[in-house]
Task: inverse folding
């Protein structure tokens, strides 16, 4: 089973400033449809021709979910995890008023302004994108190690208080070539709207434990563990800098502290993985 995780072709992390490109700022041109999910996101077509899953400032969870998505999404990309590309999406007032009709009871109506967008993986017309795979296909996911072991170290670091969520994708013409996993829904990193880091050894496991069967030791979480440990604080700050102040729940100055805490806790991720291994859940049955 170890071979499943030992995908040599997976690229290594980037930790230098050169890797930090600015987040795309786009204008929404069409509200396509509601997506599932507690934050009541929408699939939105933007002026780059791509579709994005957009979470709105007035979502029913917390406005900081948008800040969390952008910061965690950027950090994940910095260490080369397969995370959905992020964007800041400007939704003009006319689009919201165009879609005035057809709201369901209890639905939050999107408001105009700047919102968070997660680029829809592939063309919605030409790609199979699913939230769930049967075990046989899950075992064969091409980037299993990056998504689930790198993702686990990342979730420990960022204190993701939601279960790990991924989508699996393949092109409609790519039957038999296997699926790729993409990390999505980083909204509850940094403990949701709280921006704190309550520790729990029992948190962050993907519910389908077969993704951990290959783990035989700490080295299976590389190169992501080392990439987190070696991050420079200036890289973290550069990722945080782009967050629109209105996504910070009235206290944008708290972002500086969040960045400092992330920087401080990066050296403790290794121990968190060991604590998880020793937890009652025994998530890594093949650890030697
Ligand atoms: N980048 C993406 N590409 C494809 N599908 C996505 C992407 N982001 C989200 N989705 C889909 O949208 C759904 C809702 O997104 P999610 O971020 O989980 O919202 P919530 O925070 O409300 O749970 C997901 O279950 C997934 O099916
Ligand atoms: Mg979700």
Result:
């Amino acid at each position: 089973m170890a071979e499943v995780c030992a995908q040599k072709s997976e690229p290594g992390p980037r930790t230098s400033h050169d890797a930090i490109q600015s987040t795309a700022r786009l204008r929404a041109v069409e509200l396509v449809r509601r997506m599932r999910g507690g934050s009541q996101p929408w699939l939105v077509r933007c002026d780059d021709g791509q579709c994005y899953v957009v979470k709105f400032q007035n979502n029913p969870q917390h406005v900081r979910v948008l800040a969390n998505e952008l910061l965690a999404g950027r950090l994940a990309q910095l260490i080369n995890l397969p995370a959905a590309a992020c964007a800041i999406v400007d939704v003009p007032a006319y689009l919201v008023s165009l879609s005035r009709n057809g709201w369901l009871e209890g639905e939050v109506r999107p408001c105009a302004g700047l919102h968070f967008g997660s680029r829809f993986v592939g063309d919605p017309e030409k790609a199979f994108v699913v939230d769930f795979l049967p075990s046989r296909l899950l075992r064969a996911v091409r980037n299993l190690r990056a998504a689930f072991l790198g993702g686990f170290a990342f979730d420990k670091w960022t204190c993701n208080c939601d279960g790990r969520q991924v989508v699996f994708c393949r092109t409609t013409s790519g039957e038999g070539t296997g699926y790729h996993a993409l990390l999505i829904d980083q909204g509850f990193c940094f403990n949701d709207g709280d921006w704190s880091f309550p520790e729990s050894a029992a948190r962050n496991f993907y519910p389908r434990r077969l993704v951990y069967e290959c783990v035989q030791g700490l080295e299976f979480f590389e190169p992501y563990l080392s990439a987190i440990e070696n991050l420079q604080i200036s890289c973290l700050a550069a990722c945080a800098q782009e967050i629109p102040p209105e996504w910070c729940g009235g206290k944008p100055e708290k972002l500086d502290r969040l960045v400092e805490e992330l920087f401080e806790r990066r050296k403790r991720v290794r121990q968190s993985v060991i604590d998880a291994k020793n937890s009652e859940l025994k998530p890594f049955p093949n650890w030697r």
About this structure: The longest helix spans residues 64-78. The chain is about 30% helix and 15% strand.
